[in-house]
Known about the structure:
The structure holds two protein chains of two kinds. Chain A is about 45% helix and about 10% strand. By secondary structure, chain A is of the alpha+beta class. Chain A has two domains: about 20-75; about 85-165, Glutaredoxin, CATH 3.40.30.10. In chain A, α1 (about 20-25) runs parallel beside α3. The radius of gyration of chain A is 18 Å and the shape is elongated. Chain A starts with 17 loop residues before the first helix and ends with a helix. In chain A, about 40% of the residues are buried. By secondary structure, chain B is α/β, with parallel strands linked by helices. Chain B folds into five domains: about 10-110, 3-Layer(aba) Sandwich (Glutaredoxin); about 140-340, 3-Layer(aba) Sandwich (Rossmann fold), CATH 3.40.50; about 350-435, Ubiquitin-like (UB roll) (Roll); about 440-525, de novo design (two linked rop proteins); about 540-595, Alpha-Beta Plaits (2-Layer Sandwich), CATH 3.30.70.20. In chain B, the strands form four sheets. In chain B, strands 10-9-13-11-12 form a five-stranded mixed β-sheet, sandwiched between helices. A four-stranded mixed β-sheet of chain B has the order 2-1-3-4. The relative contact order of chain B is 0.09. Chains A and B meet through α2, α4, α5, β4 and α7 of A and α1, β9, β13 and α17 of B.
Amino acid sequence: xxxxxxxxxxAGKEIDFTACDEICEKYKDWKGATIPVLQQVxxxxxxxxxxxxxxxxxxxxxxxxxxxxxxxxxxxxYTKPRGKYVIRVCRGTACHVQGSGRISEVVCExxxxxxxxTSADLKFTLExxxxxxxxxxxPVIMINNKxxxxxxxxxxxxxxRDYAELQG
Amino acid sequence: MSYTTDHxxxxxxxxxxxxxxxxxEVMEALEQEFAKRGLKNAESKxxxxxxKQTGCRGLCARDVLIDVYIPGKEPITYEHVSAExxxxxxxxxxxGGNIVEKWAAKADYxxxxxxxKRYVLADCGRVDPESLEDYIKLGGYEAIKKALTMxxxxxxxxxxxxxxxxxxGGGFPxxxxxxxxxxxxxxxxxxxxxxxxxxxxxxxDRSIIEGNPHAVIEGMLIAGYAIGCDEGYIYCRAEYPLxxxxxxxxxxxxxxxxxxxxxxFGTNFHFKLKLKEGAGAFVCGEETALIASIEGERxxxxxxxxxxxxxxxxxxxxxxxxxxxxxxxxxxxLNGSEWYANIGTEKSKGTKIFALSGKxxxxxxxxxxMGITVRELIFDVGGGIPKKRKFxxxxxxxxxxxxxxxxxxETPIDYDSLIxxxxxxxxxxxxxxxxxxxxxxxxxFFLTFTQRESCGKCIPCxxxxxxxxxxxTRIITGQGREEDIDLLLEVGNDIKTASxxxxxxxxxxxxxxxxxxxxxxxxxxxxxKKCPARECAELIEFVVVDDRCKKCGICKKACPVDxxxxxxxxxxxxxxxxxxxxxxxxxxCPFNAxx
Lengths: 168, 595
């Protein structure tokens, strides 16, 4: 089942802000730096937990509210931890008419996660995305950076099971 | 234009689809094979072989595609190539001189290209997108050099005369748009390339950037010079990682070569270019929202006026054009406006790139002259509908567009004819649907999308799309009410009239056009609680119709939960206690025997 990890999951642990500070420093004199800073900090820390958001706000001389305003607007910022393997199921029009809805269901059948959820062992996250622009090979999914196209639901299931067997 | 080489060159399609189908492995296999046989950097022309990565040539359904160029011979294309096939191709074709006929592209491959006119995409599939030298070798950056010998006014005039209209969807005349920004007072002006291709079903901008990034940069230089901009941004959606990598490399290479920077080609014209990565919001394709996003804010549209040409990015005059618009410019400058204006129809000039997908045999990217009919696009270029099914509808223009029916097959595709028919050019997404697609379900799909992507700033869009989605959900789950259709039309028209930006103003279109052309399907859902296309799972009974079942057993094999019993010579039976309504049996049954 899906996890309900709190945003302050990291509380109690020592957080190393070095990478965050370096990224903010790099963009110090940029206009409109918020989004690239958030992207890179998320890249470095995996997701945007509350302590790191406060730190960014301090560094950029903004309020945390402003930062949260930006984070919650865009689909690609996360305030919860994500799975090791992010399964992106394309739900664009071309994939829809070729039956991609069924592929999301297969993910749910295999790992018990729905759109936006992460499995309890932090191995898989399901993300339904609007269009990854590979409509010629619909239905398409991406697992991390690898693209799989022209999928039938049962082929997709096999791919998911292969990933589930991977160590670590 | 034919491409020639002085040595043996094998082009490997390495767009997103090419890579996903194993492009890297094919490339590697070629390199290994050449090295093993001593063909790499060999002295004689006939023996010197090189493998080259190219961008998308459009026919993604047949990737990995490779072209074998041998000096003095016609190039040969192979389709569905895998790494295991490479040694045979090298052995028999390149070394032995005999084409491997069984893998070579056949007539149906060439049919895809017959009615196309590839100008913007001409070099996608030929040029190495990661090589500035290769772009220059194919005549790249000649257009900006020519522009720099003209006055900015002359450049704008040339673009005006060409009749080029914005390719992002609206179809506003490009030259005129530039005039507004040029005439706007200010010493610092911005040029923005909109590469936030959010329309599900459209991928031409991705392919252009991935396949020929320098063409976009050259187009931006031309526009920047004409308008008087000194700084530019390419705003690219983050969902296109390969495009981002390639554009960053292209910018870096162009800077190092003095093509971008303080003295463009040694002149006084200076132009800096940056890439801005999006963060996942459809509404950022709207130009004022895009500007807000570059500024680091929530990407919400701003009321116009003031227009970006007057007060845009950081309150400075700004001009936003789409990727494809920019990619059209080098051709116009090099060949002249008259050449360009001769292509297309009276009011829609040039070619347009369409992303053909859905229920059509050859899915992929096509570039056709404006004015081609819907029939030619779907049946001649696309090869028609697979599995001997019937053409039912085509959605043009993505979630903002509308659908057309078999009655509209002779409609010419140009900005004005499409709007008259109730659809729109949009960014050029063409999603074909057959008789197994439910139009109410499609409308529900689009509203789910626009509702999720509504930024929430204005009420008609925020609340209105939610209301429409609720009604549609009701209908596809069998809870529809008699008055629902009229209610959809009423709310839809209100949203169109009252929304702040293009997203809201066009969001109801898919519903309004499906009601207009497929009202009987809505009525069947509401009155009979039936989905005629058998796509809405809640309204399907999942029973095998005896006289249609040909006793083939395909449904049994397709069923993932073993709910179907079948033996040779008997009609299949579905056990409803096991059935999970996944519709696999319906999708796979060749005889439409499951209701």
